[in-house]
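Why do we care about 3D structure at all? Because function follows from shape, and shape follows, mostly, from sequence. That is the central idea of this module. The next example makes it concrete: a single protein chain, its amino acid sequence, and then its structure expressed as tokens.
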Amino acid sequence: MLLMRVQIAVRAVALLAIALGLAVPPTAGARPGGTPVKETVLRLGETLEQALRRSRVDAAQAAGIIAALREEVALRRLQPGERVRVTWGQDGRIRQVTYQPAPTVQYEFRPEGSRWQLRKVSLPMVTRVVSVAGTLERSLFESLERLGETPALVARLVHLFEWDFDFAADALPGDRFRLLIEKRFVNDEFVGYGSILIAQYRSAGRATLTAVAFPTRDGKLHYFDAAGRSVRKMFLRAPLDFTRITSGYSQARRHPILGGVRPHLAVDYAAPPGTPVRAVADGIVEAAGWDGGNGLSITLRHARSYKTTYNHLSQVTVRRGQHVRQRQVIGRVGSTGLSTGPHLDYRVMRQGRLVDPLAERFVPGAPVPGSRLAAFRQHRDTLLKRLEREAPF
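And the structure:
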């Protein structure tokens, strides 16, 4: 009888500890000798409470943590990838719960009686300049992934050269690339990229492309080529990001539907239906809608007597007479009109005549101001020397 009373008393104390948030149920937490830390990454659409429960925090404890955090964080704006860490002692009690919504910010919760003590901690970020270099094999994505880099760096590199080089049409196996880039770390863990300081891309039969970051009078970094001219130009090289070419410019291409050999003064970009189509330059919408065999089509009028046309769209998102900006999404890839599959038929006209979009030389951007040119050249040479030392072509 005495033993039974002792067992009942022990259970009552354990249940009280759980209710006060000082311990976790035996099935929910780590036991002595078990895993002392459980880290959970928020999934798409998941709430903090759900993430805490997946971390083996019981409902009462999760409610207390959320109540303490609600005054600090907009809990309706949680993003996938945010982290929750739960640390237990060897006795199975929760010692700390950490919620990290950003690489440099975390909230620490520690049990204090029946409440949770909250502390916001700012984590120091360290920035290091590192070199990245490689050779293109199957794709730029795969080439950088082999080097341990992420798709974010692919996008950054492509966007530097998108006025001069169409990676969908022009990139070839054996192309070389190298760059100096800022990488950011928190507690020696990589958390993101900073600025690309210099980048070069070398493709067979072409001059080496160079982009150098240099601050102008507004204090912001702008990118210039090796001669000090802005990499930004009047026209982008391509109206789509990261796609592949199915048919290049040709004066004699067999039409897949009408038959025969017809001039195809355009570039066809194969892409999934719905892929955004960008305006390659500032302009005014001259036509937008159905255009016979071209299907849903858009024609833009630009400066210097240029026009661009985008055919076989599934959707048009602009109207006639509307002003558009370079890179603005104007439609979506489709397969309307005389089309055998989803793709974009892209054409460029100059003074009323069709020209090869991949061969046309467009107006360059503004150069480094003369008063800053000497400083730019010194800065460029310093970066090039380091790049050559750490990642020679």
